[in-house]
Amino acid sequence: MAQISVSELTFCYEGSFKDVFTDVSFTIDTDWKLGLIGRNGKGKTTFLNLLLGKYEYRGEIQTTASFDYFPYTVPDSHMEQDTMAVLEYLKPDCELWKVCREMNQLALDTELLYRRYGTLSHGERTKVMLALLFSEEENFLLIDEPTNHLDMDARRVVRDYLRKKKGFILVSHDRMLLDACVDHILALNREDITVEKGNFSSWWAVSYTHLTLPTIA
Question: In a 10 Å sphere around its CB, with 0-12 CB exposed, 13-18 middle and 19+ buried, how is residue 65 labelled?
């Protein structure tokens, strides 16, 4: 287990007059199943990119952890290649038997590895890429909206799969997914960032117990 320590983090996009983050500090553990939540535009994907070292910032992010990010970007030029070749392009050192092990957990036929990647459905692509992501066990995983464009059956499979995993940050607007799969919440609030133990529903209950429904006359 490692920790990720964020200290006095400040970040602003070039040309913007408003900080995305201003002097925020918190610590998280890399064996957590962490849900990252916040309003649209609040900085969820930006924070993942800061962990990946894509932007310069003020303050400190200290960790010995290595990161991997979902979704992977597959160039259009690779859509006609078989899926196995796409996986090897994305992660040349991937071990095929580990990918197959994860595909089995996702109820996915390993025959898909020999089909052209462009013929796979959205659900099949998502599950194959999650299998690739989790095939390397040493990384702390940054998972951004994994159930986008999936039908209910595919969402259920992904939810059941992630429920058994740990060591990730999960960004999602799917509250059922967050409730099933996370044990801590990193909340990007209006004025600060907080870390709470629990899932989305427990965080919501604690954070908004002061709110009451309007009375209907």
Answer: middle
CA 98 – CA 95 distance, rounded (Å) = 6
DSSP 97-149: HHHHHHHHHTT--GGGGGSBGGGS-HHHHHHHHHHHHHTSTTSEEEEE-TTTT
Model confidence at 206, pLDDT cuts 50, 70, 90, reads confident
User: What span, in angstroms and rounded, lies between the C-alpha atoms of 63 and 29?
Assistant: 10
Say if residues 26 and 6 touch (Cβ distance below 8 Å): yes
> Contact at 8 Å (CB) between 161 and 130?
yes
User: How far is 135 from 95, CA to CA, in rounded Å?
Assistant: 7
185 - beta bridge partners?
35, 196
The whole-model pTM stands at 0.91
Q: What average pLDDT score do residues 49-71 get?
A: 95
Strand ranges (DSSP E) for the chain? 3-11, 21-29, 33-38, 58-62, 67-70, 140-144, 168-171, 184-188, 193-197
